[in-house]
């Protein structure tokens, strides 16, 4: 089994060409959990599979590190685009990608035959609670939420996947991972759970973000999350419609156009390639922990 590991600003993915169907459908969830385990597997935030598409140039399937399948992933689609271009699966610098969240259009920046950056049309965000979903009626903008011992102001939208944006004055000044874990699983408010983004507005064009991803936990970067932060900040009047999102290992440029589409631009990098002969099952103690 030959795999490639790629990352977008540290958000890392084990990637396979599965166009032949070598990985059976019933094995994908468990395989993702095993491979993404950072002690007994390869390690990663998710498993990406390249599959054939009847409607687009190619198809991306993405599974979280807990084995659950995600509708889409912003950093993941950039890594996916780099992989299919660099390996010759898709021989165009502008192509469509089928995802569970709908088709995505990727535009590549190529240097010396290698993709370095990808601009992705993430589509249009949805604001109605029923579409996200969030319990209640109407839109979910600048609401109040209490988690553990703190009360936050938040907005939630759907941009491929549900994203909750928590507005804070100092992202790095508190244990955002603890609160992210609590908010993610508030199913009484978010029936399908939610991704949680803590956003500190630096000025009208720059926002500092940390993300706790649904099904993954804290990640170094999140493309759909960064895009959602940009939209929620603009709607709240905190920024303009074009912003730079500052993450732990770099930045993403987000442009929410007047037409309503959200464009994300950022890097995608190869981590390494390897032929995997065998991967052991986690021990009972590792599975418990």
List keywords for this structure.
289 residues, disordered C terminus, alpha+beta, 5 helices
User: How would you describe the oligomerization state of the chains in this entry?
Assistant: single chain
Strand composition percent: 35-45%
What average pLDDT do the residues reach? 94
C-alpha Rg (nearest Å): 18 Å
Poorly predicted sequence stretches spanning 5 or more consecutive residues: 283-289
Q: Which word captures the global form?
A: globular
Topology pattern, helix = H, strand = E: EEHEEEHEEEEEEHEEEHEEEEH
Query: What percentage of residues falls in helices of 4 or more residues?
Result: 10-25%
Structural classification: alpha+beta
- Largest sheet report: 18 strands, mixed
Span between termini: 28 Å
Number of strands: 18
